[in-house]
Amino acid sequence: SQQGEEDPQALSIQEGENATMNCSYKTSINNLQWYRQNSGRGLVHLILIRSNEREKHSGRLRVTLDTSKKSSSLLITASRAADTASYFCATDPRNTGGFKTIFGAGTRLFVKA
Amino acid sequence: EPEVTQTPSHQVTQMGQEVILRCVPISNHLYFYWYRQILGQKVEFLVSFYNNEISEKSEIFDDQFSVERPDGSNFTLKIRSTKLEDSAMYFCASRDRDAYNEQFFGPGTRLTVL
């Protein structure tokens, strides 16, 4: 099993709806990051939440972190067709000093116009 | 806004050939990383580099791989003898002096091994 597992693997919603993606991980972490990737393109950093934070907002994004459950969620409110992409969580395990980041398998989000 | 750049955007090579992928990290960043993503799969950590040496590497990063920071700006990944299974997108990333801040990723190099 792997550090950073997202669910669902794929999500299809209508424009204007909210999209929630979840991430679970196995080891203690320093921080957790969410990235977006459009098909075949680079990774765009969305938001970073540190292990001592529980919730963070950035525009239409809301991220929560529950270190007791080793899980995080990413909420995109009022989704747009342009939000169609793959979303990955990535963790910095506590014992790696920031030198290693582990990505999950990602959630593919499709927002229908 | 400063960004990480990578060249080339696409590299095609024959199996057994050496390739060098190049990255220019953001200028005041101190931590450098290489990742790869096989088509349709997740992003995999390869190696991190700090203070002119490898800090951490994954099991993927075997003797066929090496990294260098030959000057103050470039960060390279060399694959000595490419295999078919090395075909992937390779991403470079850099971080500033706080190792727990966000990483900034380059656009990637698509490596195709024939």
Oligomer: heterodimer
Figure out the total of helices of chain A. 0
Largest interface: A-B, 26 and 27 residues
Per CATH, the superfamily of chain B is Immunoglobulins
Description of the molecule:
The N and C termini of chain A lie far apart (36 Å). Chain A has 113 residues and is an all-beta fold. In chain A, the strands form two sheets. In chain A, strands 2, 4, 5, 9, 10 and 11 form a six-stranded mixed sheet that branches. In chain A, strands 1-3-8-7-6 form a five-stranded antiparallel sheet, with no helix packed on it. Chain A has a single domain (5-112), classed as Immunoglobulin-like (Sandwich), CATH 2.60.40. Chain A has strands at 5-7, 10-14, 19-24, 29-37, 43-50, 55-58, 61-66, 71-76, 85-93, 102-103, 107-112. With 114 residues, chain B is an all-beta fold. Chain B has a single domain (5-113), classed as Immunoglobulin-like. Helix content of chain B is 0%, strand content 50%. Chain B is built from no helices and eleven strands. In chain B, strands 2, 4, 5, 6, 9, 10 and 11 form a seven-stranded mixed sheet that branches. A four-stranded antiparallel sheet of chain B has the order 1-3-8-7, with no helix packed on it. Chains A and B meet through strand 4, strand 5, strand 9 and strand 10 of A and strand 4, strand 5, strand 9 and strand 10 of B.
Offer a few descriptive terms:
heterodimer; A: 113 residues; mainly beta; Immunoglobulin-like; six-stranded mixed β-sheet; 11 strands; 0% helix; 57% strand; B: 114 residues; seven-stranded mixed β-sheet; four-stranded antiparallel β-sheet; 50% strand; globular
Task: Write a compact overview of the structure shown.
The complex is a heterodimer of chains A (113) and B (114). With 113 residues, chain A is mostly beta strands. Chain A is built from no helices and eleven strands.
Task: Please describe the topology of this protein.
The complex is a heterodimer of chains A (113) and B (114).
Chain A (H helix, E strand, L loop, with lengths): L4 E3 L2 E5 L4 E6 L4 E9 L5 E8 L4 E4 L2 E6 L4 E6 L8 E9 L8 E2 L3 E6 L1
Parallel strand pairs in A: 2-11
Antiparallel strand pairs in A: 1-3, 3-8, 4-5, 4-9, 6-7, 7-8, 9-10, 9-11
Chain B lengths: L4 E3 L2 E4 L5 E6 L6 E7 L5 E8 L2 E5 L7 E4 L6 E5 L8 E8 L8 E2 L3 E5 L1
Parallel strand pairs in B: 2-11
Antiparallel strand pairs in B: 1-3, 3-8, 4-5, 4-9, 5-6, 7-8, 9-10, 9-11
